[in-house]
Amino acid sequence: MTMNQCKHFDQIHPTEPRTPTGCEECLKTGGQWVHLRLCLSCGHVGCCDNSPSKHATAHFHGTHHPIIHSFEPGEDWGWCYVDQQFFEPMPTFGLETLAHP
Ligand SMILES: [Zn+2]
Ligand SMILES: [Zn+2]
Ligand SMILES: [Zn+2]
Asked: How far is the centre of ligand 1, averaged over its atoms, from the C-alpha of 13 (Å)?
């Protein structure tokens, strides 16, 4: 294990998923997704880079919210877009709502 280099954990907050049933943009447009990612800054749910529209990455480019968590049941990993750093398990700092997708 390497030490955590990411300095963005102060930008994440305990947050409820805004669209617990799927990708926010895909739900609006009728799009399809493969996997879901949860923005830990605002609760945005977006689709992964294997999905046609890549809304989770688009959300980062639009908002610069740095860190996402997997929104797939049983997955406990996170990713910082800024540092390109992967965390598993994700140190969630009281974000226990993540355990109930
Ligand atoms: Zn970071
Ligand atoms: Zn999407
Ligand atoms: Zn966000």
From this structure: 14
Cα 92 to chain centroid, rounded: 12
Predicted TM-score (pTM) of the model is: 0.87
Residue 82 confidence class, pLDDT cut points 50, 70, 90: very high
* Domain-located, residue 38: yes
**Does residue 2 fall inside a structural domain?**
no
How many structural domains are present in the chain? 1
What CA–CA distance (Å, rounded) separates 56 from 33?
11
Cα 3 to middle of ligand 3, angstroms: 25
Rounded to the nearest angstrom, the distance between the alpha carbon of 12 and the centre of ligand 3 is: 9
For residue 80, tell me if it sits in a domain.
yes
- Name residue 47's beta-bridge partners: 36
Domain that holds residue 22: 13-99
Give distance in angstroms: CA of 97 to centre of ligand 3.
16
